[in-house]
């Protein structure tokens, strides 16, 4: 696979607080790339840098060999779509009107709203199951419904690369699976490249074709989940002792946290070993 979108030597910071240094990643074309890691490790910050929401202190985001900093907003918006983690809904806007805003990058002085725009909006609303909500005010919806409406707006933008910051937030388990199934379909059937930040490691292992594991602003590992997800990696990244088995449904890695008693026994054994206490055989 090629890599249309790359991050090269990134230093990312908020004011004077450095979040990440010397980051380098490549997003495989046509992949469903998932970024995982503990809270405050830099996942969303990296995604925002990829979308040009924040400006790197050093390094560059490169799209098709060109720094995105040199691209016009409309040109970039035709290539990259972003669903932020907590988008702000304009007051008094209906579902259909919000989804239609995804077509803004294609509006020009001599090209106003078209049948193509209508079809893109309707297709996005059908895909996310919000068609029946078209005339409702977004402010009246539940958190899960609003999340699906915002996802529909991102889909209506019809970009070849879609960036999703925790797209399953506020969703129950059935709708989480629906959204992730949709992401897989976008990659498989529409040849989109999807990059998502997820908290659920097992969802990431099941759906990702490419996984990026981060901790403390560093990339610890990246590659196909089946190749990189080990008990050692999970403990290094999340500080969680676990077993890795094969998911019987998908043949992907499945992370099973050790039971409390098992963790306690292992901790005690390691403490004894560190103290030089010999192990007593039964």
TrEMBL record:
Location relative to the cell: Cell membrane
Keyword NAD in annotation: no
Taxonomy, superkingdom: Bacteria
An example Gene Ontology CC term for this record: plasma membrane
Coiled coil: none
Pfam hit, one: ABC_tran
Coarse class of the protein's main subcellular location: membrane
Annotated GO biological process: iron ion transport
Basic and acidic residues biased stretches: 261-273
Disordered: region residues: 261-282
Gene Ontology terms for molecular function: ATP binding; ATP hydrolysis activity
The entry's keywords: ATP-binding, Cell membrane, Ion transport, Iron, Iron transport, Membrane, Nucleotide-binding, Transport
Topological category with respect to the lipid bilayer: Peripheral membrane protein
ABC transporter domain residues: 5-241
InterPro entries on file: AAA+_ATPase, ABC_transporter-like_ATP-bd, ABC_transporter-like_CS, P-loop_NTPase, Siderophore_ABC-ATPase
PANTHER family: IRON(3+)-HYDROXAMATE IMPORT ATP-BINDING PROTEIN FHUC
Name of the featured protein: ABC transporter
């Amino acid at each position: 696979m090629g890599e249309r979108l790359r991050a090269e030597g990134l230093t990312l910071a908020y004011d004077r607080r450095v979040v990440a240094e010397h980051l380098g990643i490549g997003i495989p074309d046509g992949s469903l790339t998932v970024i995982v890691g503990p809270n405050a490790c830099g996942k969303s910050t990296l995604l925002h840098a990829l979308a040009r929401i924040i400006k790197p202190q050093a390094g560059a985001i490169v799209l098709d060999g060109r720094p995105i900093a040199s691209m016009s907003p409309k040109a970039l918006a035709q290539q990259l779509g972003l669903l932020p983690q907590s988008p702000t809904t304009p007051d008094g806007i209906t579902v259909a009107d919000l989804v239609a805003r995804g077509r803004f990058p294609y509006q020009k002085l001599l090209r106003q709203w078209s049948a193509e725009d209508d079809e893109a909006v309707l297709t996005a609303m059908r895909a996310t199951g919000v068609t029946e909500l078209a005339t409702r005010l977004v402010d009246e919806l539940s958190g899960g419904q609003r999340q699906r409406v915002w996802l529909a707006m991102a889909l209506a933008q019809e970009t070849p690369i879609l960036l999703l910051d925790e797209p399953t937030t506020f969703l129950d388990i059935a709708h989480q699976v629906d959204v992730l199934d949709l992401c897989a379909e976008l990659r498989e059937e529409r040849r989109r490249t999807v990059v998502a930040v997820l908290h659920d490691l097992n969802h990431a292992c099941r759906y990702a074709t490419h996984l990026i594991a981060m901790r403390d602003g560093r990339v610890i590992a990246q590659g196909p989940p089946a190749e990189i997800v080990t008990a050692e990696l999970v403990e290094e990244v999340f500080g969680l002792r676990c077993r890795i088995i094969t998911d019987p449904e998908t043949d992907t890695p499945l992370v099973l946290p050790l039971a409390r008693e098992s963790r306690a026994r292992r901790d005690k054994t390691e403490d004894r070993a560190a103290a030089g206490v010999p192990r007593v055989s039964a």
